[in-house]
Amino acid sequence: MKIKLINPNTTWSMTDKMAACARQVAAAGTEVVAVSPAMGPASIESHYDDALAVPGLLDEIRKGEDEGCDGYVIACFGDPGLYAARELARGPVVGIAEAAMHCASLIGTGFSVVTTLSRTCGMAWHLAERYGLARFCRNVRASELAVLALEDPRSDARRVITEACRRALHEDRSDVIVLGCAGMADLCAQISAEIGAPVVEGVTAGVKLVESLVALRLATSKLGDFARPLPKRYDGDLARYALLPAPQP
């Protein structure tokens, strides 16, 4: 099985960290290919960043189809381009916010999301609503750490995030924590041990969900909204994203 883990930002140190976490949980025989696009923002912290990360992400999905990938994980908590990626891919595509929130809803009665900057809290709430999990989401809390601060050992990120998680348990009356940034993936086990509660991060959860779907021979339905995009002309800088008609069986 080959799973492509796509970090939609262009910060490769973060991609490498995610890859290490993903490979620790992947089953024997599962190959995890971790990439960042050649173009896009260095971090994703706004709707603007989110939108401009999507072309590079979709380019990696297209390449993955040529490379024979069985499934994909979109490793940004905003789940950018998720539905468009599902239209392009033959196999399953899972976003890490989607994966983490679903897993959290299975192991507790309520979860809190601990994320980066407060400006991204609304995006996390919108995703909980989209996935039908708002009733499980007790709160979305910001650590006020920029995404790239997670790559800087001087930021004291683990302590800051751990304290935010601890407050969420007591103040939100949550029993599970969801880490709201892919760059926090390597902190999950340590934080869980320190606060004495389950902590879910979406990179590893996403890999295991994709593994399960592929093993069950389940892929995204092509009968409705996730059917392959219609071939048409794209102009200007987007001309290379135009799709050819699907090959006939």
From TrEMBL:
Q: Which reaction does it catalyse?
A: D-5-benzylhydantoin = L-5-benzylhydantoin; a D-5-monosubstituted hydantoin = a L-5-monosubstituted hydantoin; D-5-isobutylhydantoin = L-5-isobutylhydantoin
Give the enzyme class: isomerase
Entry EC no(s): 5.1.99.5
The entry lists its GO molecular-function terms as: amino-acid racemase activity; hydantoin racemase activity
Family, according to the entry, reads as follows: Belongs to the HyuE racemase family.
What's the protein here called? Hydantoin racemase
